[in-house]
Write a structure and sequence with these properties.
Shape: globular
Strand order of the largest sheet: 1-4
Strand content: 15-25%
CATH class: Alpha Beta
Helix content: 10-25%
Order of helices and strands: EHEEHE
Number of strands: 4
Largest sheet: 2 strands, antiparallel
Number of domains: 1
Distance between the termini: 27 Å
Radius of gyration: 14 Å
CATH architecture: 2-Layer Sandwich
CATH topology: Alpha-Beta Plaits
């Protein structure tokens, strides 16, 4: 999973997603006062932000490219 997008039309700027994210992937945009995906590569794919968003503005994709293992030992 990975955060695909945050719908800026639906986001009310409550900050619940920011408080929920343990790795600070989501931040508040200073100008729009809406949530933005700031560090997508840091996402731990827990999807708590999507579940906790009261406006259902966050979309988490079930797909993410997995790294290929270089060695088994």
């Amino acid at each position: 999973m990975v955060i695909e997008r945050i719908d800026r039309e639906l986001c009310n700027g409550c900050g619940i997603c920011i408080d929920t994210c343990s790795v600070d992937v989501i931040r508040m945009d200073d100008q729009s006062k809406k949530a933005v995906i700031k560090y997508p590569d840091e996402c731990m794919c827990c999807a708590f932000c999507e579940y906790e968003c009261p406006e259902e503005a966050i979309y988490v994709s079930p797909y993410r490219y997995a790294p290929i293992a270089q060695s088994w030992w």
